Amino acid sequence: MKKEVFLFYCVESEALAQKVAEQSHLIKLQSINWRSFDDGFPNLFINNAQDIRGQHVAFLASFSSPGVIFEQLSVIFALPRLFVASFTLVLPFFPTGSFERMEEEGDVATAFTMARILSNIPISRGGPTSLVIYDIHALQERFYFGDHVLPCFETGIPLLKQRLHQLPESDNIVIAFPDDGAWKRFHKQLDHFPMVICTKVREGDKRIVRLKEGNPTGCHVVIVDDLVQSGGTLIECQKVLADHGAAKVSAYVTHGVFPKRSWERFVHKKEGSAGTKEAFAYFWITDSCPLTVKAIENKAPFEVLSLAGSIADALQI
């Protein structure tokens, strides 16, 4: 039997939370008063706290910047202590995931720091917290979490595959990976597509993208990675693929981080630019980064593939 879930959410995630609730009548949206004192510190109130006793409760978070993490952590640590039957934290984008290792003494692996913080979420009456994360940067980060949370690693790749099958040229798709890391991360989920792998080589002081293996000639090539920041690597890959005869180049990332409005370098400048060699035909992202979703709305070549259905399913695990 499916369970009824009381879903709380942060301010940024309201639109995604509403989409999740639309997936099932068993998901009931709840509210929090997100206020601040005059000194800027949070003044928070969980509405209907008595009513969630004995209920399955979830929180949809968005750690988009250090400035919003503390207020959300305050709620995340409070909810399991309200005598709830179980607690699930949905954190679609684990923001420090790419800082997961030390290259020299003195480096701070903030992925481990964030994992330790989340590992100390209080246990609810139902046991450890379920922690749902999409396409974390490195799967071995699962071992950064302690025994008080159960990491559930989900992926947005099924959304991409569904979208690719809707394209007119769905039988002429080639998947490209910008480096070996992306290939290791995703190739098993996309193994029924032909593949191209790029690599970065050092030439003097520069790192140049080169085609390592595969043939993109005459195909619609889709570059796949877990996240994008400045987008420089994607642009360099697009140039290499076009130079090797790709008929069209698109991109997919689960997490469109795009700091400092770096998404602007991908926006089509005029009608019909999708057909030019300089532009991406499509740029697919999910709604794991709500601020980006708002910024790129109705701007080609961007399309948002919503995680709402997948999150609704994950809440029933």
Describe this protein's structure.
The chain has 317 residues and is of the alpha/beta class. It is 23% helix and 28% strand. The protein is built from eight helices and 15 strands. It has helices spanning 14-22, 66-78, 110-118, 157-165, 180-186, 232-243, 290-295, 308-314, and strands spanning 5-9, 27-29, 32-36, 42-46, 56-60, 86-90, 129-134, 149-154, 173-177, 195-203, 206-213, 220-228, 248-256, 283-286, 302-305. The strands form three sheets. Strands 11-10-9-12-13-14-15 form a seven-stranded mixed sheet, sandwiched between helices. Helix 1 crosses helix 8. The longest helix has 13 residues, at 66-78.
Topology (SSEs and partners):
Elements: E1 5-9, H1 14-22, E2 27-29, E3 32-36, E4 42-46, E5 56-60, H2 66-78, E6 86-90, H3 110-118, E7 129-134, E8 149-154, H4 157-165, E9 173-177, H5 180-186, E10 195-203, E11 206-213, E12 220-228, H6 232-243, E13 248-256, E14 283-286, H7 290-295, E15 302-305, H8 308-314
Parallel strand pairs: 1-2, 1-5, 5-6, 6-7, 7-8, 9-10, 9-12, 12-13, 13-14, 14-15
Antiparallel strand pairs: 3-4, 10-11
Helix pairs in contact: 1-8
For the largest sheet, list the strands in their spatial order: 11-10-9-12-13-14-15
The overall pLDDT average reads 94
N- to C-terminal distance: 11 Å
Structural class: alpha/beta
- Please give the count of helices: 8
Radius of gyration: 21 Å
Share in β-strands: 25-35%
Low-confidence stretches: 273-277
Q: Which of globular, elongated, flat, extended, rod-shaped describes the shape?
A: globular
Helical fraction: 10-25%
What string, H for helix and E for strand, traces the elements in order?
EHEEEEHEHEEHEHEEEHEEHEH
Give the tally of β-strands: 15
Main sheet overview: 7 strands, mixed
